[in-house]
Amino acid sequence: MEPLKKLLAHRRVRIGLVGLCGLALAGGLLAWKAGVDLAGLKAGWDQVNAYLVKNPWALFLALVVLPGLPVPTSLLLLTAGVVWREQPLVACGLCLLALALNLSWTYWLAAGPARRVVEKLLAATAIQIPELPRGDHLKLILVMRLTPGIPLFFQNYLLGFLRAPFWLYLPISILCTGVIGSGVVLSGAGLADGKLKWAITGVSLIVLGGVLTHLLRGWLGKRKAKAA
User: Fold this and answer.
1) Residue boundaries of the structural domains of the chain
2) How many degrees, rounded to 5, is the angle at CA 208 between CA 52 and CA 212?
3) Residue range 136-153: average pLDDT?
4) Does residue 12 have a pLDDT over 60?
5) What residues have CB less than 8 Å from 196, skipping those under 6 apart?
């Protein structure tokens, strides 16, 4: 419980939770005004769930593609946990594989075609894209991955555009996002299937990921202070 208390005591975490509650209330109000009721929502979800169960490739493809757009990755992972709830560990493996593929294509899109377009546009000006010193690559990746509030797709594109080494970018990115992501998947599977074991495991992984993120951010802060 102590790590959870420390996590909830963090100012940005509280602000994020308040923001999510506000968005949920606004969404609920809009749905009520539009005449959407719980029965209609449940019927719609049952149809989507049945389709995804019969066509797992569609959900896997969505996990590969949609996080490269302004779509909440946590919502997709939660959906995967619910749809693939009969095999929670397999669901985690598939989600991590999809995440790795998404991290890869977004990186290379930004590092290749997108960067070349920007370079051509800047060719007639005195502006140049800055090259990161080799010693700053790890720091940049960690700062992007550990700073709350930065959307995943923006992190991927920026790190690719600045050409952080891929061999460093991919494993660190998976480590930073995989723990909490697996926790979300297992939480969804446990809640949907009514198995407390998976729900508790998922919540524990989310808390562990939050604590590790806090510790790593503290370590980065100390390194920055020493360098100054």
Assistant:
1) 55-227
2) 120
3) 86
4) no
5) 190
